[in-house]
Amino acid sequence: MRLFNSDLDKLQQFVEINQTAFSKILKKWDKTSKSRTKELYLSRAVEVQPCFNRDVISDLSDKATTSLLELGAWAEGENLAFAPSQNTQPMDRTQPTQQEENDLDTQIQQAVNTGNIALVQEWADRLDSGSDTVSRISRLFLSTVNTAPLPSQQALLATPIVNVDYKDEINERMCLHELAITGRLDSLTAALEKGADVRSIDVYGRIPLHYACMHGNV
User: Fold this and answer.
1) Helices 131-143 and 98-113, packing angle to 10 deg
2) Is the C-alpha dihedral spanning 131, 137, 139, 142 positive or negative?
3) How many of the other CB atoms lie within 10 Å of CB of 161?
4) Cα separations (Å) of 32 from 22, 26, 27, 36?
5) pLDDT of 45-84, one tens digit each?
6) Terminal CA-to-CA distance of the chain, rounded, Å?
7) Which CATH code, of 3.40.50.40, 1.25.40.20, 3.30.70.20, 1.10.1060.10, is assigned to 99-214?
């Protein structure tokens, strides 16, 4: 248990060093490229990784300490049971965990990309129209806009939970930017019919028409 506790301390130090490294590297990148990637990349790609979840390491450390105390008490001939910290909150199982939400997003994305319209519509009917849901499904629509078959996209667009003007948090491109790059006319037409903003500007100050011209998509 002492060895385990020591390893946890080393792990925590390792995690903090890596997190600091990511932050400094991104800071240098932003300065050199005159971009603003740091905070968005940290929140979207770095901090969401399991190794950066301090609650897990803290919980394991508490358990190791509790076990050491119990072993010490038993060694002294005492039969004691140490209760967990009063600050520890029980997990609320009424709300899906982050992992469960990620798994659901992956399943929906697979259904969209494979053209499983029945499954897409079933999930769309089950999801509420709250801002979190709209953001999640709009992000999914944007990520599959160049890979999913048109019927799948139309099934999503037929629901009120897709915002066609949703922008990527890094480059601020929306679906029309992506479709103008690939020249996928059927999907672009569907997005336009849904009211997508043709004058939406990305982080580089470009509208979708810029990308259509750059890539020669008449």
Assistant:
1) 40
2) negative
3) 19
4) 15, 10, 9, 11
5) 777 777 777 777 878 888 888 888 888 888 777 655 555 5
6) 67
7) 1.25.40.20
> Which pair of tokens denotes residue 161?
């939970």
Structure tokens at 15: 């995690």
Q: What is the pLDDT of residue 103?
A: 63
- Which uninterrupted H or E stretch holds 62? helix 54-75
The model's pTM is: 0.53
How much is the pLDDT for 42? 82
From the list 115, 120, 183, the residue with the least C-alpha distance to 149 is: 115
Tell me the three state secondary structure of residue 51.
helix
Running DSSP on this structure, what letter comes out for residue 52?
Answer: G
What secondary structure, in 3-state letters, does 163-191 show?
CCCCCCCCCCCCHHHHHHHHCCHHHHHHH
What mean pLDDT do residues 12-39 have?
A: 87
Q: From the centroid of its chain, how far is CA 188?
A: 25
Whether 29 shows a pLDDT value over 70: the answer reads yes
